[in-house]
Design a protein that fits this description.
Elements lengths: L16 E6 L5 H14 L4 E4 L6 E4 L3 H15 L3 E4 L16 E7 L6 E7 L2
Antiparallel strand pairs: 1-3, 1-4, 2-3, 5-6
Length: about 120
Amino acid sequence: AHLMAAATVSVPEAGGGKKSKGKAGAGDDKLRAALEALAREDLALRVERDPGSGHILLRGMSWDHLELAVHRLENRYKLKVELGRPPVQYRETLVKAVQQVEGKHKKQTGGAGQFGVCSIDM
């Protein structure tokens, strides 16, 4: 038996991601299948689904790299895709109970003005 050794190709980890959104007529499944086919051809592309927002994220080496992938989608698969920045998800957790948190609103502009007080227990 002969042993065969193959050189492994080291591909840098994909950097910045962009949200991809299909335009009219581009189904989510068709878009995802086309993106995965492109990612199989180009090892530097990564296709992920953001668990928080549900958007499809396309990660690549640069903005030009991502635009080239979009150009391929349009030419090969006849899909119109719009790139955008992924939304930032803000998540905060209460770590302890708080009592009597108070907020006040005061606005005086010449007339009767506005005043409000809000007290919250969490």
